[in-house]
Amino acid sequence: MSTVDREEPLSERTRDERWRVEFPFGWDADELVSRRHLLQWSVWVSGALFASTGLLAVLARARQRRRGGLRAIVEASAVPVGGVQYFAYPRPDDPAILVRLGERRFAAYSGRCTHLSCAVYWDPERGRLVCPCHQGIFHPETGDVLAGPPPRPLPSIALREEGGMLYAVEEVFR
Amino acid sequence: MTGTHASTNGTAPEEPPRPPPGQPALVMLGLGVGVLLMAIQLWLLTVALNLYLLREERGPLLATGISGLIFLGGVIMLRVLRRRPRRRV
Q1: N or C terminus of chain A with fewer C-beta within 10 Å?
Q2: pLDDT (tens digit per residue) in A113-123
């Protein structure tokens, strides 16, 4: 009897055996990406996400520590009612805006739009704080968003008046 | 390796060891839960970024804590699997 005759007929073998005969490669070649490798990579990605979130937490904490400090802005009498004074606070490159709302009423806000950080300006005709980039409009008395895409109110700046001089005390985020 | 089951010499291949019933499904479920937890970590990262822009201090810390717990769980799972000998299914 020949070798071919002694072999089991192909139809009688199990499906797995037939597949192994037709595709004769070992398990080793079948291990390019195992479930353990997938898990290992997943843990690395998980670690990277954790590190990124931690970095944001560290940055947030570091930023909280430098929120300003006392700084002179302008003589109160130098700003007319309904007028504004642009200044920088808390850092030299942070735009801010002081609005005189009434005889004894002042308000100051960060001049950075909460949408995409464009510089906000005072529109005397409308009596509103306006961001020119996407027409974000803020209320001059509260800093709240009245129109446009900004998601949050403008951060306000606490003021103090001493001897006719206005001072910025602290930037307050809401 | 427990099995080089393929044969090129014409002999009948030996049957690979079968896993206990339900085990492959459990393993795949575990992997699925792991991927879901990673999606939660990604969501936490976006939440932390939003809170960072809102000048919140505690929010990103909390998100970091939860994300760290998920990462720790993954590391523990990896260490447990390294102690067990690998078995072909």
Answers
A1: N
A2: 988 889 999 99
